[in-house]
Structures are given as structure tokens and as C-alpha cells.
Design a protein that fits this description.
The complex is a heterodimer of chains A (117) and B (115). Chain A contains no helices and eleven strands. Chain A has 117 residues and is mainly beta. Helices cover 0% and strands 56% of the residues of chain B. By secondary structure, chain B is mostly beta strands. The termini of chain B are far apart. Classes of the chains: A mainly beta (117), B mainly beta (115). Chain A binds chain B through residues 4, 6, 32, 34, 41-44, 46, 49, 91, 93, 95, 97, 102-104, 106-111, 113, and chain B through 32, 36, 41-46, 49, 51, 90, 94, 96, 99, 101-103, 105-108, 110.
Chain lengths: 117, 115
């Protein structure tokens, strides 16, 4: 149980284009979903927290207009990287907290590797 | 504010040897503490968590960790390393109170297991 999927697992896009990453909780409903960014050989940095049906809360230094987050349902959140540039290349990981669980539980997706050329 | 310090970015052990990965935390309120493992190009898998119950926590794959409030530590141990344990390990902290449910991660420790 408590499986989180991400799609795509790997994407290459050209500079200036936008790319959307999906995060789905497959067997539970998620009140809250989190988006993280991880650079090579570094830790996870929280980008934003999203609650179903409301606007995402972004961490300091994260550009809201560049990283668009939509949490349209209790099982789906999307991260859109707009006008991507090579410096946006990274490993993006989402996690989800169950509605029915305790607030500290987070289940992580397998990650999406974005390469911007 | 909460923070996590993992001592040693890289730990190398021989197969069958004791694994000890160190984690110290800082938190203004009683914390919840976690250890996660990450294999290359994968997401994070929860190894174990401390949520104010027993101070010695047992997790998956033979790992365990002990919460020591006086030392503000939550070190991860395994008596005998396996080759399959080679991975990146992250310690994380979350405040137990209020609505702040964000996890703060340490920088990670890469565990190498030598045959």
C-alpha cells in the first residue's frame, strides 16, 4: 500500500519549452503533496507544498511563475516547469501524505529526471 | 527552526561489518525523526521513524536507530552490512506540533559496502 507514482520518469526538453510532471497517489487519497528538487549528490530541497483545491505554498527562493503546481484532486498533483532552461535540469521528487493517516507520513514517488538542452 | 546534520558524507564498510550512520538534529519542539534510503535514480524509501514512542526503533532490512534526547542524536545502525545496503541514506526531522509538517533533510551519507 501507499504507492506514489510519477510520470514521466525521465524527460528531455529543449530550452524555452515547458514540461509537466505528474504525481499520483495510487492507493490512497492525499491531502497534501510535496515537491522536492535534488541536485546530483545532494539532499532534497523542498520546493513547495500543495493541498488539494488550494494554491501551493512555495519555499523561499522558488519562483512561483516558473514552477507551476496544481493539486486538482486528492490523487493527482502536477508540477509544470515553464520556459525551462539548462539550470532547471534536476531530479524532481514528489511525496504525498494520506488523508486518513497521521500528518507526518509522507510517501515518496520514484522521481523524474529532467534534462534541459 | 529545525535542522539535521549528518556526520560523514561517505561511509565505507566491509561486508558483514557494523554499519553506523550518524545524525544529529536541532528542533525547538519534540521532533519526529526519520531515516530514508535512496538507491540510484530512485525515490526515497522509509527505513524507520521515531514518533515519541520507544526510543529504540527497528526498521526494515535489519536497520535500527536510537533516539537520544540528551545527545540530540538519531544514529542509524545495522549489525552486519550486506552488499545490497550500498545506497544513499538521509536523516530527516519534522516538528511534532502544530501544522508544520514539512520534513527537513540532512545532506545524506553515501554508504559503500566492500566485498
Amino acid at each position: 500500500g501507499a504507492v506514489v507514482s510519477q510520470h514521466p520518469s525521465w524527460v528531455i526538453c529543449k530550452s524555452g519549452t515547458s514540461v509537466k510532471i505528474e504525481c499520483r497517489s495510487l492507493d490512497f487519497q492525499a491531502t497534501t503533496m510535496f515537491w522536492y528538487r535534488q541536485f546530483p549528490k545532494q539532499s532534497l530541497m523542498l520546493m513547495a507544498t500543495s493541498n488539494e483545491g488550494s494554491k501551493a505554498t512555495y519555499e523561499q527562493g522558488v519562483e512561483k511563475d516558473k514552477f507551476l503546481i496544481n493539486h486538482a484532486s486528492l490523487t493527482l498533483s502536477t508540477l509544470t516547469v515553464t520556459s525551462a532552461h539548462p539550470e532547471d535540469s534536476s531530479f524532481y521528487i514528489c511525496s504525498a501524505s494520506p488523508v486518513a493517516g497521521v500528518v507526518y507520513e509522507q510517501y515518496f514517488g520514484p522521481g523524474t529526471r529532467l534534462t534541459v538542452t | 527552526a529545525q535542522s539535521v546534520t549528518q556526520l560523514g558524507s561517505h561511509v565505507s564498510v566491509s561486508e558483514g561489518a557494523l554499519v553506523l550512520l550518524r545524525c544529529n538534529y536541532s528542533s525547538s519542539v519534540p521532533p519526529y525523526l526519520f531515516w530514508y534510503v535512496q538507491y540510484p535514480n530512485q525515490g526515497l524509501q522509509l527505513l524507520l521513524k521515531y514518533t515519541s514512542a520507544a526510543t529504540l526503533v527497528k526498521g526494515i532490512n535489519g536497520f535500527e536507530a536510537e533516539f537520544k534526547k540528551s545527545e540530540t542524536s538519531f544514529h542509524l545502525t545495522k549489525p552486519s552490512a550486506h552488499m545490497s545496503d550500498a545506497a544513499e541514506y538521509f536523516c530527516a526531522v519534522k516538528n511534532s506540533g502544530g501544522s508544520n509538517y514539512k520534513l527537513t533533510f540532512g545532506k545524506g551519507t553515501l554508504l559503500t559496502v566492500n566485498p
